[in-house]
């Protein structure tokens, strides 16, 4: 048990909070001071059941002693080592352990510090690859409406969430978007993958006809999380893979959320039966104990870039903290837990119970759609007139005060619990959430 006592701060002004209503929070603070297993605890000691694995990331639950001890041990041995023209053993071991989980033939791993950095890195790798193979005209990057690929200018440009872009003016040039796969008229309240929407992948043919052979890569989430849990229609990803191969375009899966067991396999590509050319990851890689991200690339991409240069640096990109010793130690310990406890298998076994509990909210007031896949759920609420997002935010606040952490995106409640969840936790999550939704019915 983590016994650290954390006092409530008496001055909240200094911290410029991310993705937050700073004014509201600092007048109505809700703080987390400790975490263990399936729960957080406030500074006053009140338990808050974690229905979101932090931010989709603490898949093995909180306070795992094996990860803590690995970080402590490594900090005493080697606190930092540069990885430009140098290396340290744990970075190579961590990369090999990641490669053990990725699809066959995707055995090269580039380390970053976050999902945002992973996505920007993958886009740069795509451009470098196309140039190295003699296709330097391929500079265009394709994303998808309602896609989320972090907050760097690359991922933000390829992403398709307007609210994340409107403050920042000019985005990257040479970017276009596929349509969203969200078809509520045909697919509302579907359990798992919806039947309608595979045809939307054919929009890539239209973009190829428009842009010619200038497209370098397409980046999509296998299951879109931050935009409100959008599950791919049956056949959609298969068709996208087919078209990318046909036109010499790289397919990048953003698996920052779906990686490391979230939908019942090591990676979403395995569950969905579609192998991309690159996979971006973060979050569950270290159980969020230390920031770390990564990009797994196909051997063919790596070999083309590295062998395309006679000597010297082949890829002019990297971060000071790429493969940081503490992060590498955390990743190795996390993967040990992931494999030993079969977290993907636990998620898959719990999925039917989770699905039924999720759809039990169908008759709740103002619920207009429910979407689920693996241990992810999105419950969409009817917005209040003239106050988009207000109803879901009030549900979020009620849930927290009643001892449950949920995630809000617009008027959608998103859930993604630690993969160690038990049926009693599922029951508690949906009972508390149902009560909060009913209380916000007006």
Automatic annotation (TrEMBL):
Its cofactor is pyridoxal 5'-phosphate. Pfam families: Aminotran_3. Keywords: Aminotransferase, Pyridoxal phosphate, Transferase. GO terms for molecular function: transaminase activity. InterPro entries: Aminotrans_3 (IPR005814), Aminotrans_3_PPA_site (IPR049704), PyrdxlP-dep_Trfase (IPR015424), PyrdxlP-dep_Trfase_major (IPR015421), PyrdxlP-dep_Trfase_small (IPR015422). PROSITE patterns: AA_TRANSFER_CLASS_3. The keyword Ribonucleoprotein does not apply. It comes from the Bacteria. Belongs to the class-III pyridoxal-phosphate-dependent aminotransferase family. This is Aspartate aminotransferase family protein. It comes from Roseococcus pinisoli.
């Amino acid at each position: 048990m983590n016994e650290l006592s954390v006092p409530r701060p008496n001055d909240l002004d200094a911290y410029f909070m991310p993705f937050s209503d700073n004014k509201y929070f600092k007048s109505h603070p809700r703080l987390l001071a400790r975490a263990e297993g399936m729960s957080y605890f406030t500074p006053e000691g009140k338990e808050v059941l974690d229905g979101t694995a932090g931010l989709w990331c603490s898949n093995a639950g909180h306070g795992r002693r094996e990860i803590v001890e690995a970080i402590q041990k490594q900090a005493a041995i080697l606190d930092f080592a540069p990885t430009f023209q140098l290396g340290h053993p744990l970075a190579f071991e961590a990369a090999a352990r990641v490669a053990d989980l990725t699809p066959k033939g995707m055995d090269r791993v580039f380390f970053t510090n976050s999902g945002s950095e992973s996505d920007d890195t993958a886009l740069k790798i795509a451009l470098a690859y196309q140039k190295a193979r003699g296709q330097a005209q391929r500079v265009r990057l394709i994303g998808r409406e309602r896609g989320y690929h972090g907050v760097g200018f690359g991922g933000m440009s390829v992403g398709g969430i307007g609210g994340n872009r409107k403050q920042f003016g000019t985005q990257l040039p040479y970017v276009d978007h596929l349509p969203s796969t969200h078809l509520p008229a045909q697919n509302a309240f579907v359990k798992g993958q919806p039947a309608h929407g595979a045809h939307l992948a054919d929009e890539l043919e239209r973009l190829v006809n428009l842009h010619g052979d200038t497209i370098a890569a397409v980046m999509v989430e296998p299951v879109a999380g931050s935009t409100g849990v959008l599950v791919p229609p049956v056949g959609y990803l298969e068709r996208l893979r087919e078209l990318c191969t046909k036109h010499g375009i790289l397919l990048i899966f953003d698996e920052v959320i779906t990686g490391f067991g979230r939908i019942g396999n090591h990676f979403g590509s395995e569950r969905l039966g579609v192998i991309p050319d690159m996979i971006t990851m973060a979050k569950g890689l270290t159980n969020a104990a230390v920031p770390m991200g990564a990009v797994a690339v196909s051997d063919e991409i790596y070999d083309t870039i590295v062998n395309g240069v006679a000597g010297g640096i082949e890829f002019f990109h990297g971060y000071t903290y790429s493969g940081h010793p503490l992060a590498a130690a955390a990743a190795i310990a996390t993967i040990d837990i992931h494999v030993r406890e079969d977290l993907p298998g636990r998620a898959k076994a719990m999925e039917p119970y989770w699905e039924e509990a999720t759809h039990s909210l169908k008759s709740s007031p103002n619920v207009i759609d429910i979407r689920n896949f693996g241990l992810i759920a999105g419950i969409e609420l009817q917005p209040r007139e003239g106050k988009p997002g207000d109803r879901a935010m009030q549900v979020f606040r009620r849930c927290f005060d009643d001892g449950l952490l949920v995630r809000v995106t617009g008027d959608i409640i998103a859930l993604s619990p630690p993969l160690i969840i038990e049926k009693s936790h599922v029951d508690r999550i949906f009972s508390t959430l149902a009560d909060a939704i009913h209380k916000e019915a007006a």
